[in-house]
Design a protein that fits this description.
β6 (about 90) and β7 form a beta hairpin. The strands form five sheets. This protein has a seven-stranded mixed sheet. A five-stranded antiparallel sheet has the order 17-16-15-14-18, with no helix packed on it. Among the domains are: about 1-35 and about 415-610, no CATH class; about 45-170 and about 305-350 and about 370-375, no CATH class. By secondary structure, the chain is an alpha+beta fold.
């Protein structure tokens, strides 16, 4: 192709055979992994906890049963976040003892008793919980179970989430957590009604609370407290109280002995106003505590929902029971409270609108909308890279089976372990190998901020906050406005072992990117020196055999979205900036303020950027 700069016309011929061979080798690697049929897809044995016996005998009682056999087994599974408790030993089967450190066994026993009184769950005999039902010290058995994890969850009658099953760990290490727990216990019924959106229950508790304050039934303050009260800061409340005291002093100073009736009438009116404001302050304090408690539970829910295996579990739950998943907080547990009450339900299909009433709306925004963002509004790239995992290879074990376009990649128990996944850079490199072009470009544009000059720059950089923004930009624009062809696998492809490196020792991977448009910037010595830490790129360029000098480097910006009719850059925030050489076709990700440079837009035909 011919690529035009201001001063010269540079001929660059892309070696298409290299690209084709790279595509073939990448495809062949996946094909080799997927040859043959999946093994061990028939019946298999699992260990289950008998709920009733465990609850009644106050010790964990396990049974080994056959799953997917001739007899149907009805059980539920627990989804929770692991903690760090002191080791508790449980006799699971004759073959192994479970060494439980994830939660306090007494909390698990109380949960079993609660399950026995839950209307939908009380008929189910068994529960599967991995900390007890997997022999964690037997690597072969553990590996076999992980391979069948989808079968275990998909065949469960219910997948029940308990985000705070590790509550005792936090009570042991945090006094602030313990104080919050006390608030949750104090308002447990109001919290229950708020989460279940039981307006009548909340109204009844509001009325009972105002009765304890001594507010007359016919006093207008009742209506004000329930409907129009806004939550202000504590400082605002203190200012109101000071104004009231000043008003009281003013009335005292203006006392007229000869008009005592007016004086006492004013004082009485002030006392009424003071009493009503006192009620307001108490109600504001109560509402803040309720919101703080809900926000605490929301944080626990969000922390649970961001675990790699949990994401896999609730994606399976989404396909069961009309897209509704049960969950519970053991913060609310009590031996004699909530018996025969339903667990909470998260509806994956719920598109409800936030209520207009102020406090109800605050509850919705603080709790319901927040957990929806955690559970629903996330892309695949966001989930696999931003979730928490004890082992990075678990990201693939848990996530790849979720999407039909990727679930055929894992064909044997050893597929993923053969990839040698160690750190997050190796995770991103593998994703560049196996994802489709759309997901690859989302990953690519998530690397456009927080640049670290470490090779390979396209895999060593990733902005955790960027996936949601990137997904929103792509979803809000038609495919015709994408700056790449998502139907062409060659538009972005990883070459893991490039064979054409010239004059440099770097033997790492290279990403081939072919955009439809790009902007080239005229660089000068002064402009490059203004770049954020230009010297930090020296080491990378030395590894690539390229001098980091103004006359050898060019700046390029590749937008994610463009419109032919727009002369100006469209959606400029979502862009990848490259620094490198046109002649040598060596590029690395960089950061620079393009407003300081003069740009020239280029319509691309066949130039493929080699990004290192």
């Amino acid at each position: 192709m011919t690529l035009t700069d201001d001063d010269s016309s540079i001929e660059y011929s892309e070696d298409k055979d290299n690209v084709d061979s790279s595509i073939k080798s990448s495809t062949k690697a996946i094909d080799n992994d997927t040859e043959g049929c999946p093994d061990d897809q028939g019946p298999f044995n699992i260990v289950l906890v008998d709920i009733r016996k465990t609850a009644e005998q106050r010790r964990v009682y396990c049974e080994e049963v056959e799953l997917l056999g001739s007899q149907k087994v009805e059980y539920m599974t627990l989804s929770y976040r692991w903690g760090e408790m002191n080791e508790q030993v449980v006799r699971a089967t004759d073959d192994y003892d479970a060494h439980v450190t994830s939660f306090l066994l007494n909390d698990f026993l109380r949960l079993c008793r609660r399950i026995m009184r839950e209307p939908d769950l009380k008929k189910i005999k068994y529960v599967w919980v991995d900390a007890i039902c997997i022999d964690q010290r037997n690597e072969k058995s553990k590996k076999d179970t992980i391979y069948r994890m989808n079968d275990i969850y998909e065949n469960a009658a219910y997948i029940v989430a308990v985000p705070d099953l590790n509550m005792q760990y936090w009570l042991n290490v945090s006094k602030a957590y313990a104080r919050m727990w006390q608030k949750i216990k104090k308002y447990r019924w109001y919290i229950y009604y708020a989460i279940t959106e039981n307006i009548e229950g909340m109204d009844r508790l509001d009325e009972e609370w105002m009765d304890t304050l001594g507010i007359p039934v016919d006093d207008k303050s009742r209506h004000t407290l329930k409907t129009s009260l806004n939550l202000k800061s504590k400082r605002d409340s203190d200012d109101e109280e000071e104004e009231e005291m000043n008003a009281c002093r003013e009335i005292s100073f203006k006392k007229d002995i000869q008009n005592t009736d007016d004086y006492y009438e004013n004082m009485q009116n002030w006392l009424i106003k003071y009493q009503r404001n006192a009620w307001k302050r108490l109600e504001k304090k109560r509402r803040r505590q309720i919101l703080n408690a809900l926000e605490h539970l929301t944080d626990l829910f969000g922390d649970w929902a961001n675990r790699t295996w949990v994401i896999s579990e609730y994606h399976i739950a989404k396909k069961h029971n009309d897209g509704k998943m049960k969950y519970w907080f053991i913060h609310l547990n009590s031996e004699h409270i909530f018996h025969d009450e339903y667990f909470f339900t998260f509806d994956f299909n719920d598109q409800s609108i936030p209520p207009s009433q102020s406090f109800r709306r605050l509850i919705y925004l603080a709790y319901h909308l927040t957990i929806k963002k955690k559970m629903i509004y996330r892309s695949f790239v966001d989930k696999i890279l931003n979730s928490r995992a004890s082992r990075n290879e678990d990201r693939f074990h848990a996530m790849l089976p979720l999407l039909p376009k990727y679930n055929k990649i894992i064909r044997t128990k050893d597929t993923i372990s053969s990839w040698n996944i160690t750190d997050m850079t190796s995770v991103r490199l593998k994703l560049y190998e196996i994802l489709d072009p759309m997901d690859k470009f989302q990953l690519f544009y998530c690397s456009s901020y927080m640049i670290r000059a470490v090779l390979p720059t396209f895999a060593s950089n990733f902005n955790e906050e960027n996936p949601a923004y990137t997904m929103r930009i792509f979803m809000n624009h038609p495919v015709s406005e994408y700056n790449f062809d998502i139907t062409d696998h060659a538009s972005i492809i990883l070459e893991t072992h490039p064979s054409y490196h010239m004059n440099h020792d770097y033997q790492g991977p290279c990403l081939h990117v072919r955009p439809k448009r790009y902007y080239m910037y005229q660089s000068t010595e002064s402009s490059l020196e203004e770049m954020d830490g230009l010297k930090r790129y020296n080491r990378s360029f030395r590894q690539l055999g390229l001098e980091c000098t103004p006359d050898s480097l060019t700046l390029v910006k590749i937008l994610a979205i463009f419109r032919d009719e727009d002369q100006d850059q469209y959606c400029p925030k979502l862009a990848v900036r490259l620094l490198g050489s046109i002649k040598r076709n060596i590029w690395i990700l960089c950061s620079f303020d393009d407003t300081k440079f003069e740009s020239q837009r280029h319509i691309n035909t066949d130039y493929i950027f080699h990004v290192y």
